[in-house]
Amino acid sequence: MSTTAVPEVAVTAVDEGFWTRVRKTGAVLLALGVLATVLFGALATDQQARFTLSETEGGAALEINGTIGAILFGIIAAAAGAALLAGVPKRWFTLVLGVGLVAFVLSFLCWQVSAAPEGRNFMPLVNVIRGTFILALPLIFGALAGVLCERSGVVNVAIEGQLLMGAFSGALFGSISGSVWVGLVAAAIGGALISLLLAVFAIRYLVDQVVMGIVLNLLAVGVTGFLYERLMQTDATKYNSAPRFSNWEIPLLKDIPLIGPALFRGNIFLYLGLLLVLVIHIALFRTRWGLRTRSVGEHPTAADTLGVKVLRLRYRNVLMAGLVAGVGGASYTLALYSFTKNMIGGKGFIALAALIFGRWSPTGALLAALFFGFADQLATYLGAIGSSIPSQFLAMLPYLATILAVAGLVGKVRAPAADGKPYIKG
């Protein structure tokens, strides 16, 4: 009896070579650090760069000579880049990268604050922190809507439309009823209507989810724009003058230096957004619903064999996502502004980037949204102090931060395995 020898297959590890992701990031950060040291240090002045711990110029402040600060923080950023380039352990990557990026931003701010005209050469940290959270709110709600959908296996490109419909519905029904609570409920329902269309066409009729999301965004822009011209422009007092939620101050916590005035004297949307991050995180990773949601997003066939109603769960989660995004849209029209055509202005797509940057996690999405919110607030602050940087570039800053974060800092991430794949029950 003859036997056939089976050749052994040698399994070798993939050689990444010298230029790993960590070293590439280190090289970029090193270049940024050198740029900050040389350029920002040369452009900064000898005026004190003051970072006040209040909302005004007065009071306690952190001060540093502009030139010294720009050079010092530039050197720290370059050192962090050199450490990454030398090949620090992967467990230290996030910490070293974070230190380097913060140092680069501080070097830039030392230049900008010290070079500002007399009387404006200070940065009120309370206002910056408060503005960061306010500008991040729609991103937080939108990213949470993305988490609920994509952890269930449904791509949610329609966040922009959900936010816009929520903003419009909140303004319209809040104005007609004269009640902020009616406006809030209407905003949630408006976002859910867009989600319902996404669920029906993506889950029931198996339409391409990305294409469907883009179509729904265009639908929301068209419907709200048409009704805005026919109703709100003709009679703004009746249809576009919704009452606003007032700020709620939390006793004791509001008196904490720096953090208290920024976070604990906010409106309902700030508290609700932070609460939803906590609730969804716990529900997603600590409850039966969360286990089933993650199972459906990773392997719906296996979940189905264990008795999970895959399609029902997807419908429910997509509708919940619409409710959340609709409330996020209301944070514009029931707290800050009157409704205008296409007022979301691409924030839904930035929320989608925050979802990816945050690796499909509620807490990660929160941190990513705050990063983008800070970029937006920084652009506003630089415009207020008369920065020499062109205003057109400042307007681009939040979107440049989005590109940098997703293309440069995220690296290799894996979406839920069944994300975007329709499930056909056998």
From TrEMBL:
Pfam families in UniProt: BPD_transp_2
TM spans (from-to): 27-44, 64-85, 92-116, 128-147, 154-174, 180-203, 210-228, 268-285, 318-337, 349-372, 393-411
Membrane topology summary: Multi-pass membrane protein
InterPro entries xrefs: ABC_transp_permease
Location(s), subcellular: Cell membrane
UniProt GO MF annotations: transmembrane transporter activity
Record keywords, A-Z: Cell membrane, Membrane, Transmembrane, Transmembrane helix
Transmembrane keyword on record: yes
Protein name as it appears in the record: Nucleoside ABC transporter membrane protein
Protein's organism: Micromonospora chersina
